[in-house]
TrEMBL record:
Residues 199-319 form the Replication factor A C-terminal domain. Belongs to the replication factor A protein 1 family. InterPro entries: Euk_RPA1_DBD_C (IPR047192), NA-bd_OB-fold (IPR012340), Rep_factor-A_C (IPR013955). This is Replication factor A C-terminal domain-containing protein. Keywords: DNA-binding, Metal-binding, Zinc, Zinc-finger. It comes from Brassica campestris. SUPFAM superfamilies: Nucleic acid-binding proteins.
Length: 336
């Protein structure tokens, strides 16, 4: 670092009586793309802000014969760039206890004065010994602005064609969003005609008591059932029956079925998101996410990645069949 502050015989130190000016400029958050391109001077500490994604588990390791707490996590910026971060000791504990007690939604973390570490060509950002300060979902300008950009980001992707579509018809592609037929939730619930429309809504809750994955048929993606051999009257573990294909299948594919409640200004309804939707959002297959849950000993818990979808806005494409008055969208439309 080219600069140093020297205290000489003539330096006066006095208690700070006035507020430090330029309060709004106290952070200088570096863009993730800049960091990842490794153009940055490794000796200069940096400020970063991002949303916590992926697991963040506290581990105890031994460094120079002393026990030491460490926490790895990934931060995502408003785009799709992700950086790996490492937090030590009390920083690790602070983040871990916050995440443990947090009930869902996005966690935005601002870390000031972090060290850049490049090892074997891989970049991580690490907490300093004492320099780092953490702000987790705090009510400060930087975090509030970041959160605003996050929700705008979702809105802007929904209006330029790369859309989340929710539909019971696997042939619908996101290129064919029926923007000309936009409906509110109350209009959807009160109309009895066959329709294809889109709904602008926020995921307000996930049904965490319902399973978020199922074993699907590799052919038609419908849920398979255990196969009961009619002759022996025993369930054969390596075979499954598919009602869709009306056949016995020997392999299955783990697929998403995330039940959620969505809300707009007119009301609420229930949707189920399948592979097409969820993979677009969290960039992981149901199999990968389940493996990850099992690996971190939380196979029975509802994945945090999915809980992170709560509060986010999407455009849902709905194919509504012609129905009687008993029509209930949650089961008729989307239940496999
Ligand atoms: Zn099938």
């Amino acid at each position: 670092h080219p600069f140093k502050i020297f205290f000489t015989w003539s330096t006066h130190v006095k208690k700070n009586c006035e507020e430090i000016p330029n309060d709004s400029l106290r952070f200088n958050c570096i863009s993730f793309d800049d960091l990842l391109s490794q153009k940055h001077d490794e000796k200069v500490f940096v400020d970063v802000i991002g949303e916590i994604v992926g697991p963040c588990d506290l581990k105890e390791i031994t460094v120079r014969n002393a026990p030491c707490k460490i926490l790895n996590l990934q931060l995502k910026d408003c785009g799709d760039s992700i950086i790996n971060c490492v937090f030590w000791e009390k920083y690790a504990e602070d983040i871990h206890s916050y995440v443990q007690s947090f009930s869902g939604g996005a966690i935005v973390l601002l870390c000031s004065l972090m060290r850049i570490n490049i090892y074997n060509g891989k970049l991580t950002i690490q907490s300093g010994k004492a320099s780092t300060k953490l702000f987790i979902n705090s009510d400060i300008t930087e975090i509030n602005e970041f959160k605003e950009t996050m929700s705008k980001d979702v809105m802007s992707t929904t209006s330029c064609g790369s859309l989340l579509t929710l539909s019971n018809c696997t042939q619908v592609s996101s290129d064919h969003i029926p923007f000309d037929n936009r409906k509110t939730i109350s209009q959807l619930l009160t109309s009895y005609e066959e329709t294809r429309c889109c709904i602008y809504a926020t995921i307000c809750a996930l049904k965490i008591e319902a399973p978020w994955w199922y074993l699907g048929c590799p052919g038609c993606a419908k849920k398979v059932n255990p196969y009961l051999n009619p002759e022996t009257e025993e369930i054969e573990m390596d075979k499954f029956s598919c009602d869709g294909c009306e056949t016995i299948v020997c392999s299955t594919k783990t697929r998403y079925q995330v039940h959620c409640k969505v809300l707009d200004h007119t009301g609420t309804t229930s949707f189920v998101m399948f592979d097409r939707e969820v993979i677009q959002l969290i960039h992981k297959s149901a199999y990968e996410l389940l493996e990850q849950q099992v690996q971190f000993n939380c196979g029975n818990e509802f994945p945090r990645e999915l809980l992170g979808l709560e509060g986010r806005e999407f455009v849902f494409t709905v194919n509504k069949p012609e129905t009687s008055k008993n029509y209930t969208p949650s089961t008729l439309l989307f239940d496999y």
